[in-house]
Batch of 2 targets.
Target 1
Amino acid sequence: MPIPGPGHNSNAFPEAGFATRTVAWRQAKASQKTPSPQVVKMMLARAKELGISYADYASLVRTGGRDIGAFLFTPEGLRLKLGRRLEMPEPVRAKLSQVQACRLLALAPDAERPEDYLEELREVSGLPFTHAAPTPLGDGWSRIRAALHPTFSGLPPQAVALIGAKERDFRLVAAASLAGMVGPEALFGA
């Protein structure tokens, strides 16, 4: 019999059928601590600083295991209108100008140089976007990580939340080990 790989339950449940896994999952969920009122109050304040709901913030923190230090935006996540010149809707610019203690990062559209995109994005928005990376959609997971991680400039990937609008963006979250993804409506409204 082959040796179990990393993440295997090491025969803790030798007959681990569906019912056994269900019981184990319920026990694990029940054993999770409920945050104290002081922690909830701090998390509510941080969610407000970031401009997202408490539920979205708590979900990202649970997934990543740490506070959000950056938002990584796809062009769709910024609701940009791509044409000869970028156009950012005023409500999006106004909302992002209120975000506190969080870096603004961007993914450049296909076939656009990240440096040029970053410069134009700063000019159009008047916001301090710090880095831009190419959108590595067709690459393997190791190439996605290699393309995105330098963009975080010292932040762990679990502290970066992707703001995206397409199903394909979930691949970036998984490959780069990001905190998670929320749609632009979570940040900017409907």
Target 2
Amino acid sequence: MKIIEIKSENAIKAYNDGNAEIKKAIANLVGGEKFLITDIKERIKTLQDACEYNGIDYNTFIKVNSELPKDEAAYRALKQIVLALNEGVQMNYNNVKEYKYYPWFNSVGSGAGFSCKDYGLAYSFSAVGSRLCFRKSDVAIYAGKQFTQIYNDYING
């Protein structure tokens, strides 16, 4: 059997330019339409999508993490989601030239470590390490909205 390599951008162009029959054939060749979607926010809608994108078996991931406390399981889930939404790029927190973004959540109440008062102004914040940072601000906003429950489990345990 001969293996033919096709650049992903060529497959995407052919898919976008093709009729319904061509689109179906190309999607079948590459493993489905989701591999032809270029906007990562359209590809990663669930934790399962993130696991699949990262080459991790979702059912095994859930089983292994089901024994962990809620916040630890959520942290592991977020690491998979962030890695997928960053399209496999690991952020380097030591690189000051590399912008990093993360979702910002407004707190409705006070929780230890999440609220602060200074000079009579009240505000709340949550900071995360580089493993949970995004390369693009729009992706960070998307992640915060799409995966709010997982972030809530991570922050509030």
